[in-house]
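Extended Data, record PP2C family protein-serine/threonine phosphatase
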Amino acid sequence: MITSLAESPEYQLHVKQMELNSLLEVTQAINNNLPEEALYKIYHFILRGNLHINKLLLCIYQDKWEKKAVFGTTSSFDHVHEDLISLDLKEVTSTENEQVPVIFQEFDEIIPVYHRDALLAYVFLSQNQIAYREGIATDTKFIQTLTNLIVVAIENKKLAAKQMEQEALNRELQIAKRVQERLFPKKLPDNPYITVKADYFPHQSVSGDYYDFIALPDEKYFVCIADVSGKGIPAALLMSNFQASLRILIRQTTDLLRIVSELNHTLYEILGGERFITGFFALYDHRAHTLTYINAGHHPPLLINEYGTNRWLKTGTTVIGIFDSLPFINYEVIENVSHFLLFGYTDGVVEACNSLEEEYGDERMQKVIEEFAQEKPSHLHQKLIESIHDFCGTTPFRDDVTLLTLKVGNPDK
């Protein structure tokens, strides 16, 4: 004998049909790739219009707890993160539970929503009391299933969007990497009179490190190494602008004072003093046996002559790009240099750290350079890189690393 509406086959069929229609509506919305807000509106309508729910609050965890759907409540629940961060429920729980914050006690029960053991959401709700007394209240398992379907779909949409963004970024990085690689000299001299060797290890796909070597008329050679403040694409974009400006200037003049001053002015106009570049610029005159240089706030290169005497090249100016006009600028001409080695580098070399946070430092670098200064630059670089890796162990480089060696004379080495 049927004693209540809930027990009648007609009502049970109606409930199953309603649940099936609700799931179908949500599934179609997901398949139609409706936006997140549209899915929450459908969820809101189903629970409020079809499932005898008087009050509801849906909170989703996405880096922090946030309200996503609410109706019938006295509180707005605009800021729920602090109230939920310590709540840890595994099953449907009454709000009378002592660990439930007071703010949620206007509801009757809490439904946690999990996916693969990860807590995704909490549903706070109160059902229609008349429906509850007559035994026709909505089964919380169905609400849990419906919520899980919505929340997991939204999470998957966000993961897919992030994946697409990452793939697009990776494509952009690959393009930027190829462009940046073309900024470096395509071929460096390697003959009995002059050898240039460069090694470049970007911390990311692209970097702000730069080096250049340009053979000029009358057996003059221009060499530089530079480092942009910052990392990644912004640094690489600034470096490409720097390279273009430098290449134009070096075709117009070999006056290092003018070159550095013009570069500074150009960078300041572009960035308004918000970023800067350190750089070392040198001009070697093979006929006159002179080396002229300006150091613009860069780590001093090491010059070793044929007698094994070394010196750090520090004369110059401050970093370029900070001031509209450089506050001071000097240059040095080193004479009678026909056999020498000039080693330049960026700060990623000396600032490389081991597991104890100790830096590789200038002294270790200098020791390796002096030991292998008479070898081919390629061998020198190999030994220095091995030394850095031996020191750092498994600790990765923190910054871009660039090595640049100019060796003149010593045709038998």
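Summary. The mean pLDDT is 85.
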